[in-house]
What we know:
The structure holds two protein chains of two kinds. By secondary structure, chain A is of the alpha/beta class. Chain A has two domains: 28-113 and 281-329, D-Maltodextrin-Binding Protein, domain 2 (3-Layer(aba) Sandwich); 115-280 and 332-359, Periplasmic binding protein-like II (D-Maltodextrin-Binding Protein, domain 2, 3-Layer(aba) Sandwich), CATH 3.40.190. Helix content of chain A is 41%, strand content 17%. Chain A contains 14 helices and twelve strands. In chain A, the strands form two sheets. In chain A, strands 1, 2, 3, 4, 5, 6, 7, 8, 10 and 11 form a ten-stranded mixed β-sheet that branches. Chain A has a two-stranded parallel ribbon with strand order 9-12. In chain A, helix 7 packs across helix 8 and helix 11 (289-300) packs across helix 12 (302-310). Residues 9-29 and 361-365 of chain A have low confidence and may be disordered. Chain B is of the alpha/beta class. Chain B has three domains: 8-124 and 265-301, 3-Layer(aba) Sandwich (D-Maltodextrin-Binding Protein, domain 2), CATH 3.40.190.10; 128-262 and 327-339, Periplasmic binding protein-like II (D-Maltodextrin-Binding Protein, domain 2); 346-527, 3-Layer(aba) Sandwich (Rossmann fold). Chain B is built from 21 helices and 18 strands. In chain B, the strands form three sheets. In chain B, strands 5, 6, 7, 8, 9, 10 and 12 form a seven-stranded mixed β-sheet that branches. A six-stranded mixed β-sheet of chain B has the order 15-14-13-16-17-18, with helices on both faces. In chain B, strand 1, helix 2 and strand 2 (74-79) form a beta-alpha-beta unit. In chain B, helix 2 crosses helix 12, helix 7 (151-159) crosses helix 9 and helix 17 (430-441) runs parallel beside helix 18. The two termini of chain B are 42 Å apart. In chain B, 51% of the residues are buried. Mean pLDDT of chain B is 89; it is low at 1-41. Chains A and B meet through helix 2, strand 2 and helix 9 of A and helix 1, strand 4, strand 5, helix 12 and strand 12 of B.
Amino acid sequence: MRRILGIVLAVLLLGGVAFVLVTNGPQDKGTAPKTVRGVIGSEKGEFFADPDVVKALAAQGLTVNTETSGSWDMEQLPLKGYDFAFPASKGPADELRAKAPDKAVAAPLRPFYSPLVVVAHSNAARVLAANGLAALGARGTSGILRMDAYLAAVRADRGWQQLKGADKHTELSGTLFITSTDPLASSSGALYLAAAGYVADGGRVADGSQAVGRTAPLLRKLTRVQGAQQTNSDAPFRDFVSGVGNPLVLVYESQVAAQLLAGRPMGDLVVLYPDTTVNSDHTLVPLTEAGKELGRLLSEDPELRRLAVRHGFRPQGAAPEFTEATDPYGAYLNQTLTGVRQAPVPTGTVLRDMARRARDQGDPA
Amino acid sequence: MRNPVRPRGRLFAALALGLALTATAGSCSSPAGPGPGPATGTAAAPGTLRVLASSELADMAPVLEDAREATGVTVRATYAGTLDAVERIASGQAEKEYDAVWLSSNDYLRLRPDTAGRITSETPVMTSPVALGVRPAAVARLGWDPRKVTWSQLHRAVADGELTYGMTDPKRSNSGFSALVSVASGLSGAQSALTDADVRRATPKLRAFFTGQQLTSGSSGWLATAYARRTDVDALVNYESVLLSTPGDLTVIRPADGVVTADYPLTLLTAAPDAAKESARRLTTYLRTPEAQRRITATTLRRPVVAGVDPAPRLDRDLRRELPFPGSRSVADGLLDAYDNTLRRPSRTVYVLDTSGSMAGARLDRLKTALAELTGDFRDREEVTLMPFGTAVKRDATRTYTVDPKDPAKARDALRADAGRLTASGGTAIYSSLTEAYRGLGAAPRSTFTSVVLMTDGENTDGMAGDGFDAFYRALPEAQRHTPVFPILFGDSDRSELDRIADLTGGKVFDATRGSLDGAFEEIRGYQ
């Protein structure tokens, strides 16, 4: 009898422990919030700084501290002490996972994504359209960038001065190029090369050294004309907003959408969707259980999904949240991505090879 | 053969070592620190962000005061030139003393692979292009429409002797470096990022352009002061924000064929403590609010980076082409090297060195070491005089050398040998020695930068008195009065006496009692 009672007690106790484990955290408002530290791509900085996001996470028992880094630069950081890393695409996420101390925890989660777009000042967009490099929508605030025509212009070292209509605008001179980030440091820069390489190689996704070799001279040209490149996607966008920098800048759609959703006037900004582009799958790599919990919440919690939309991201899966919220901004955003093809992204290793060969300065071999 | 672009493994190891060292230094230095508590030294303190910053950011004080009220974060800034700061980050020194760096631009920083793992969270806060501020009278004389002036026109005006200007040293200051990149792009006709070939092609035009540079400086603050003393210099090269804040209503010209723009990224050092990182995050979030951005543009005349906030009304809204910053260190360093050794006007400097009896022993040894260190730094075509003095100038030991580009080691070796032979004896004849330095330099030809460096460890005891020197200086022809004296505070020298000499001649005092003598000599290089 005593023995049976003992077993019953033990079961009850275990159950109690399990009960505590299950309920501790999320619903248990009594305990102190758990602090989760992570490194994120700069494009998600404002999302995590948003007081409503902080509040929504706190309601789930989490305080999240972040610092930003170029996605590919993350693996250079000492990961000890971080609960998660949140780069802007799968490639760096794969490498971070390989470095993670606990592989079982580190299964990546992809709560939201955003296509790469090009922002242009309206003078530049109109000149591109007049020369067949772009097609603008009725209001002239968004359109499609013809990647084939653009890459042909780059191959021919075309300058703005050779495009008709450019002479009316002082700022449109010098070689025509899109500003992107350092592909060795930052995800958007590498994804730009992936999209360009895919178009240049006749719609084939690079699968190895030979394929990379075929497009390397063009990719090197796309990179070299830019000179020094920034290591995160926030900086060139801020330059653009400030009215300085190159008239064509590669950014995430989310960066523009976030400004629109905040009700900010966009000045003379035009959003050009490349007809072949790449989606940036923002990928969270958990390094601890707490990091994993954060990834789950970002993917599943309705409030956090809604807040992700506020910052311009498209939640994974059917996302009526995004369509609904961005409805008033159809003049800038291509909600259904009509006329935009997704280029598949090469594996992390191939993409690194592409980036290295594109950045290679001075050595033509 | 292909060079590995980033040696990641080694870098990571170096970084880990850097972290370990910092932790050690931090744990033993705080208890041993000299009294006054966390507000002075370089120790971390809660709610305080220790920032290594570009000197022109001093104008952010009112904005940062607002930020302190809104966020509780106090910024403690230490000012440094951009390239100096980059060296300190690369060597790991910066992370021992600071949590963040806030430079006008991270472009040069990014060309150094050895800084890659040391920085994180770069947040651009505001922008300002490097431009020319020209006296309205000169604009009228040249018949220019300020909105349409190009680099070629500027070059033409200088070559015709119609335009002179002051600019900071590109090796110390980002505004000088950006100007150098802009003018090299503009005059080479480069259509995209500069290459070595572009720089070579533009060399004759660049050399002509730099004959117009009448003032050089290690910092933009001193440049503005020096400019205010001169009526014969037509223009200043600096950030648009600085030019608009300089008295005299300068007409700002952003050349129509392109500019290089600073974007002031507030950047964390990876090794910073968590609390500091959190402070930085709060601060940058605040600085990016429309309210703070409006305050920034109104107070500092920089351009906002947040959509919907208009630049201050004095800022012209016309767009400009952004000239790409070089993408490789070899091009950037090649350009700096060309500037120093072939493009800029050479300098002529007299080092007036106190070798009185009180210098005997350790002080003289420090002087010899500092001079030996300095000799490696002399540029091609530079003329250097070592003029030691005691009771009077020691004529036998006074010699002048010019660095011959064909054999630069020759003059440097001879200077080093002379420095090694210095001996300490006699009294301290500061003023008589200075007059001899001025006589030695003679009528300063416009084709060189002339200056005098005065190193003394005591008060004037012999020869001419201070009043006598005042009278001597004021009686000099105007061209010779443009030669400044840069006194170095060392040993028991009298601060007020040295301040007076600097004020009189338009120089600046450098303090070697707090830093090192090598450091003071090195800092003065930016002004020569």
